[in-house]
User: Fold this.
Amino acid sequence: MTRDEGPIEAFLDELYRQLSCAPRVARRLLAEAEAHLHDSAAAIEATGVDRETAEQRAVDRFGAPGRIAAQAPTAPRRPVPRALALVRAAVALAGVGLVAVGLSGAVAAVMNAAFGSSFVGAVHQTYSGAQCRHLLAVQPSAVDCAHAAILENSSDAVSLRLLAGAAGVLLLAVAWFWRRASGAHAWSTGLPPAVLPAVGLSAFGAAALWLTGQTLDLALLGGSDGTGFYLSGAVVALAGCVGFAIPLARELRDQPA
Amino acid sequence: MSLSARLKGNLDLLLLSVLKAGPAHGYAVISALRERSDGAFDLAEGTIYPALHKLEAAGHVTSWWDEAAGRRRRVYALTPRGEREVVAERERWTGFVGHVQAVVAVGA
Assistant:
């Protein structure tokens, strides 16, 4: 184990997370704690114990991070910036969600091209006479109402989702420029760093479960017809799960034991 | 009352008394505290930093960064106000201990 991964580094990370004082006070306290812990570990190591044990003893003697943090002067609470940071993060998450919908539209377009419009568009649904007249009017190449519905559904699955994706890109741009204008560090919300990826993973996980269930339901009802409508979304939702699971795992791994 | 609670109530006096001997960084302060008390005052070492910061905010100590052996350490020293404070606190403490001793010694 290197010193960069030892008990002192883990302790300083945890102390950093728990400090709620002014940035300058926090930086000073962290620098003092680091120097103190290394001095203490060096003195303990000189008695003949290995480095990791010495660091752990130095950390134990220093006291719990929460206790030190509780005694540091608390910075004046700034509820408005924190609330704005949360709104900004929510806007960014909504943007990611809409971009995912747009990507599912692109997947649906690929499915339309690869497997025909029935794979995406043959959603099991009955249409009234008025709806049929409308579908036949917007899909003049269709031979009957069912065919017109398939063409319309497969087309909507692409165009409407791509439109949502464009809105998502717009939201992400708004969130990005907002963050830059406010001088915020990364997507800091004042909450533990694992919260944002956990929220993203939960949302995409729920979407992936529902869409996969719908896909299987349709497949059991009518074979491959219409399964692409939900499968295109399930594929992207699962990819989104992976995208949020990686930073979440990284955050949880970095948590001190 | 536990020893740590008693220490907490008198930590300022203990820190100022250690610094009376001369400027020192936090690790040296806690080491001196332990040595002078024969190991009895073995408090959580990190707790002295917030206490030192409060003493500095009160104008009793001043501090600066000092670099030695490739590591920066914050060195603390008494201000003239801190010098007066430690004398006054010591007198208050001595008086308090004398009064407590006078009370508890009766019938001992």
Remarks:
- Residues 45 and 51 of chain A are 6 Å apart (CA to CA).
- Chain A touches chain B at residues 25, 28-29, 31-33, 35-36, 38-40, 61-64, 67-68, 71-73 (CB under 8 Å).
- The mean pLDDT of chain A is 85.
